[in-house]
Amino acid sequence: MNFKKILLLLLVIQFTGMVYGLNMDDVCSADDDTCKKPNLSGVGMIEKGKCSLTGVLLRFRQLSLLECAKKCFITSKCTSINYRQNWKLCDLVKSDDDENEIADDSTCIRSNITTWQKSLAGKCAGYKCEEGKKCEFNPHDKSLKCVKAYCKGLPNTPNATVDERFGLRRNLDTGNKYKCKKDYKMEGNPFAVCQSPGHWKVLFNCTTKAMCRTVGYTYDKSTTTCIKLVKYPKSYWEDARETCRLEPRGDLVSITTKEKWDFIIKYLQAADVVSETVWIGLKEKRWMNGDDFTNVLGIFGSLSNDFLKKPYGRIKNNLLDDHDGEPRHDHMFLCEILMA
Fold it and tell me: Which residues constitute the domain of residue 203?
């Protein structure tokens, strides 16, 4: 490199430091002379005190800033890097569709990889790999190939959030710790693992104490109601109840609040069975959960004077009705799993 090129390099580095308030000493470790004096005609543009919180593909420890940029170039979908000098910690970051969430972080710098020279990638410069892979150079036969590098997408972790200091990463054979959101409890081991060759395995579930997990049942959190509509031609009321009780804590549904009544009516409307007759858990003025029947505050609307002269309760056309319990062709019934 002649004197003019050396002078130009110094001017570029000095200018970059002036614009962003730092120089290579700010981002390189004290013992990393290669990082401080890169064999490049220019360095990437750097934002100090900023970090991407989302979209991290891979995380590496004990890497220099330049090694971090190189890994980004050879990794598919990597568009920027986070670097934490104190830990020599490198994040390879993918741009999210809704843009990455950027946070203030005094320990971190962020840099868009398009501002760096592609020559950092060496033989892999310009070599394209599909998502989840990285370019690898074989020095023996001078060949290039794409190898698995990280998990595509994110693990399915409903009602949970990542519990990692620097956020989720997708390195192969690496686990991410999670915690459940408020009002949910952890079942299993609190980790989602990116397993080789690139598939997520979630080792936990976040559930409420009243979570309805029986197949075919619908759960309403606001009323802690867990119900299922069953169609059973010509079903007697007693037969319907026996069917519901096959499930642990199962029974015909009891309706003791207006909120629960409203939920059930919407549920039947959504199932398009409003005009059908549906058995419920009301027998001889008593609900199957043990409560006596009362129409407090007009929960069920206006009831006829002779209502409940017949022993069994049912719903038809969004109204509460009574019946003698004999089967009909179109009778259905609503099963409920009683919550603890």
Answer: 160-208
